[in-house]
Amino acid sequence: MSLSSYPLDAIEALTPSQMDFLKALPKAELHAHLNGSIPLPVLQQLAREYYVAPDTDSDSSFQTEIERLREGVVLETIEEFFTLFTTIYALTSTREALARVTDAVLAEFLDPIGGEEYPQATYLELRSTPRETIAMTRLEYVETVLDRVERYLPDQAALIVSLDRRMPQEVADECIGVAITLKSRGRRIVGVDICGHPTAGDMGFFERQMSAARAAGLGITVHIAETIDNTPEDTLKLLSFKPNRLGHATFLNEEAQAIVIREKMAVEICLTSNFLCKTVSDLETHHIQYYLKENHPIAICTDDTLPFRTNLLGEYAMLLAPTPYGLGLSEGEVEKIAAMAHGSRFQFDG
Ligand code: 6MZ
């Protein structure tokens, strides 16, 4: 995979011995969206195989969209990010295609690839939003993904079911119902998430689903305060669900920050994602600095390796590389951060 300039510059700034250290470091990936993490060649192959009636031009529009992904998306704002998924979703809407992309994502994270001795991650909590398509129900969607996840050991891979902020009540109920039912059958669902366009929807509506998930013993993580437009009410509502972990947590006000620190809610940090979505301008002003200063648990994550052209090694390289390419932390400090991510995993009791 060709990397974005941020992780690439950091990787290039590492000494060979620092590189060896990072590769061998056991890394837990806790924030990776399935449809945002598909390796580009796999998506390109799916686009080539996609049947299109000869009198439509959607085939060429797929290719144009995928070409954009290949070249690397340049986003003016985070708003533009969410439209990328129209094409990807069209290509992953059968059980067969979904199984294929899930296998590819799992392999990219968990198998040593290209003669490497170590995998990108020693543990992956993959997340995905159950989708109903012409070919499958939401239950079948989750079962298809789980079937692939469970080919790995429980201490290697697990699934988080995402709710989209735009979901109608009945769909959110159905998704949580699916997660709880499958968990009760011993399937490897360890948590639930709220994701999607950061300012869409009314988070008050998710209270019922979040308490049901908690009562069923599922971990809770929520995308929170990802953009400057997220209101304090939205943020406080999400915190009232008592999440164990938080995605991004970029624009917390003092009140919210105090809750996060007091309740020790681990923060999933996605550096390249924030830079490319232009919610944070550089490492110096990134909120990771605050959490490091507070010695607060964080997990370094990739978010969406496909559009952001990154990988877990690149994200960790930004901790270790000297400034201005990285934070210039010591190997001992980076080791401690990696251990925090492992310590923030959701439990699987199946
Ligand atoms: C919020 C995001 C996201 O679930 O179909 N998603 N939601 N913020 C982000 N940061 C940039 N990145 C991805 O994976 C794709 C879905 O994940 C959410 C979006 O809702 C996207 O449609 P799944 O596997």
UniProtKB/TrEMBL annotation:
Coiled coil: none annotated. InterPro entries: A_deaminase_dom, Ado/ade_deaminase, Metal_Hydrolase. This is Metallo-dependent hydrolase. It catalyses: N(6)-methyl-AMP + H2O + H(+) = IMP + methylamine. Belongs to the metallo-dependent hydrolases superfamily. Adenosine and AMP deaminases family. GO terms for molecular function: adenosine deaminase activity; metal ion binding. It comes from Thelephora terrestris. Pfam families: A_deaminase.
